[in-house]
């Protein structure tokens, strides 16, 4: 069984649950009604095509027609798109390429920015509100704990390499080295000018 239909169906279910369930998002959804957004992730060989309608969002792996807007980016850039202010900076830096009507991707970013991504909403119909909220809170706490632990381990590794094992220079040593090389460069330039002056006599 091909995996692409499973992936597109999973993405479609998640996006429909978050973007099309809340009635408060109706005006933001209407701006995208009838639009087609093609997302090309450089890590994958096939693009994802988002087809917006009044009642739902279809995620397709293949699309014969023209897309209103095409976005070419990396997977790591997608979470940054939730912040509307970063979109222009991402386009300027080359991390995000937009072809076609940029208003479509801006409206999609605005819609996803207004939507609240809470896993408890997906779990609540199956296991109840209290259990879903408990699992969601546990997942948030666990991910924050893991993130904090990872940052701590990175800091420890950096300190071990620079302070204990002396395998890498510390920040002050790098600054001192940069100043010393700049001083040597200035001395060489001065010596070169003096030699040129002496040769000219």
Quickly give the CATH architecture of the largest domain: 2-Layer Sandwich
Span between termini: 85 Å
For the record, what is the CATH homologous superfamily label of the largest domain?
SCP2 sterol-binding domain
CATH fold node name of the largest domain: Nonspecific Lipid-transfer Protein, Chain A
Biggest sheet strand order reads 3-2-1-4-5
Low-confidence stretches: none
Work out the count of structural domains.
2
Strand content range: 5-15%
Query: If helices are DSSP runs of H or I spanning 4 or more residues, what is the number of helices?
Result: 7
Instruction: Report the helical percentage.
Output: 55-70%
Q: Structural class of the secondary elements?
A: alpha+beta
> What's the pLDDT, averaged over the residues?
87
Largest sheet properties:
5 strands, mixed
CATH class of the largest domain: Alpha Beta
Radius of gyration: 27 Å
Order of helices and strands: HHEEEEHEHHHH
Number of E strands: 5
InterPro entries: SCP2_sterol-bd_dom (IPR003033), SCP2_sterol-bd_dom_sf (IPR036527), UbiJ (IPR038989)
Domain SCP2: 15-111
Family: Belongs to the UbiJ family.
Keywords: Cytoplasm, Ubiquinone biosynthesis
Q: How would you describe this protein?
A:
It comes from Enterobacter hormaechei subsp. xiangfangensis. Keywords: Cytoplasm, Ubiquinone biosynthesis. Residues 15-111 form the SCP2 domain. It is found in: Cytoplasm. By secondary structure, the chain is of the alpha+beta class. 58% of the residues lie in helices and 12% in strands. It folds into 2 domains: 3-129, Nonspecific Lipid-transfer Protein, Chain A, CATH 3.30.1050; 170-200. The chain is built from 7 helices and 5 strands, in the order ααββββαβαααα. A 5-stranded mixed beta sheet has the order 3-2-1-4-5. Strand 2 and strand 3 (57-60) form a beta hairpin. The radius of gyration is 27 Å and the shape is extended. The mean pLDDT is 87.
């Amino acid at each position: 069984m091909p995996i692409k239909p499973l992936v597109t169906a999973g993405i479609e279910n998640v996006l429909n649950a978050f973007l099309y369930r809340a009635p408060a998002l109706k005006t933001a959804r209407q701006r995208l009604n009838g639009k087609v957004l093609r997302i090309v992730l450089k890590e994958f060989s096939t693009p994802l095509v988002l087809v917006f309608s009044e009642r739902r969002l279809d995620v397709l792996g293949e699309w014969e027609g023209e897309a209103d807007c095409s976005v070419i980016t990396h997977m790591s850039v997608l979470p940054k798109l939730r912040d509307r202010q970063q979109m222009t900076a991402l386009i300027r830096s080359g991390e995000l390429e937009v072809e076609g009507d940029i208003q479509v991707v801006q409206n999609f970013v605005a819609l996803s920015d207004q939507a609240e991504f809470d896993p408890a909403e997906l779990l609540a119909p199956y296991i109840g509100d209290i259990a879903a909220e408990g699992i969601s809170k546990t997942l948030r706490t666990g991910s924050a704990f893991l993130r904090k632990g990872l940052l701590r381990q990175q800091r420890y590794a950096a300190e071990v390499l620079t302070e204990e094992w002396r395998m890498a220079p510390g920040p002050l040593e790098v600054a001192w080295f940069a100043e010393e090389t700049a001083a040597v460069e200035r001395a060489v330039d001065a010596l070169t000018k003096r030699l040129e002056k002496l040769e000219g006599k």
